[in-house]
Design brief:
Layout: H1 2-15, H2 163-169, E1 182-189, E2 194-198, E3 204-208, E4 216-222, E5 225-230, E6 235-238, E7 244-248, E8 256-262, E9 265-269, E10 275-278, E11 285-289, E12 298-302
Antiparallel strand pairs: 1-2, 1-4, 1-12, 2-3, 4-5, 5-8, 6-7, 8-9, 9-12, 10-11
């Protein structure tokens, strides 16, 4: 009996394959990883043709999702003719987003060639719709035909010199009286044609009708720097409101920079960077002028 059982077992083994080999119900024709099976007929999950990826694996050959190539190669539905960054695609036919011709910028990228927004040239070059005949800053365009905005129409006034620039344009040697560093002078406003006096509030005003009515001052000059002093009295300073007031001693005196603008005409620049002018409302002297003009010019008449 034992021999008969052994012979039957041998016959059974000869008539069928092992579970891991050959054809079986779960994997007919091969193991799970070999041959053709129901789940992956014609090849394993990673090889050959299968239902999910007929003709190639997920990453190789042609498949339904990416026929003709993988997701990153060849032609596919999303990007036929090339990958997203290569060749021609629906979004950018004829080139990538930055190359060739595309719908958004046919004939060139955003910054190159011809496009709808700027046909014939880039945004900053050549001719475009917005600025025909030139870029925004060059040539002729619709908004500024014939030139740029600074070159068309009525000529603009030249920029007024700032206090720092005025220093280079004006002569630095004041010389109210040549060779005299302690000149006794009368100060006259060129614009108002009035002489400067010290008011009861000790502020300086340009209100005197003639030289005899004007006060006498002494200019203490050092190069193109000068301090102003009432003859026999106090020194002049610029207060915290920029007004000129004669109420201090030598240590508190303001040192002005003097520039000559004409024949015995001078301007005074205070340390705050502004020029001294005559205020319109009350003829008081104040250091608030940005530019040197007629209101900032003074004459110094020597007193013997």
């Amino acid at each position: 009996m034992q021999l008969n059982n052994d012979n039957m077992n041998k016959n059974n083994m000869n008539n069928k394959s092992l579970q891991g080999q050959g054809t079986n119900q779960q994997f007919p024709g091969g193991s799970q990883n070999q041959g053709t099976n129901q789940q992956f007929p014609g090849g394993s999950q990673n090889q050959g043709t299968n239902q999910q990826f007929p003709g190639g694996s997920q990453n190789q050959g042609t498949n339904q999702q990416f026929p003709g190539g993988s997701q990153n190669q060849g032609t596919n539905q999303l990007f036929p003719g090339g990958s997203q960054n290569q060749g021609t695609n629906q979004q950018f036919p004829g080139g990538s987003q930055n190359q060739g011709t595309n719908q958004q910028f046919p004939g060139g990228s955003q910054n190159q060639g011809t496009n709808q927004q700027f046909p014939g040239e880039s945004q900053n070059q050549g001719v475009n719709q917005q600025f025909q005949g030139g870029s925004q800053n060059q040539g002729t365009n619709q908004q500024f035909q014939g030139g740029s905005p600074g070159q068309v129409g009525l000529p603009s006034m030249p920029p007024q010199p700032q206090p720092q620039q005025q220093q280079q344009q004006l002569k630095s040697k004041p010389q109210p009286d040549s060779g005299n560093e302690r000149s006794r002078v009368k100060i006259k406003s060129v614009f108002d044609d009035k002489f400067v006096v010290i008011g009861r509030d000790v502020f300086l005003y340009a209100t005197a009708q003639n030289a005899n009515s004007g006060d006498t001052f002494r200019l203490i000059i050092d190069g193109n720097k000068a301090r102003i002093r009432e003859a026999g009295g106090s020194f002049v300073r610029v207060d915290n409101r920029d007004f000129l007031i004669a109420d201090t001693d030598r240590r508190g005196a303001t040192e002005f920079t003097i520039y000559r603008t004409g024949d015995r005409e001078y301007v005074l620049r205070a340390p705050n960077g502004y020029f001294v002018r005559v205020r319109e409302s009350d003829a008081r002297l104040v250091a608030r002028a940005v530019n040197a003009d007629e209101r900032t010019r003074f004459k110094f008449r020597r007193v013997d």
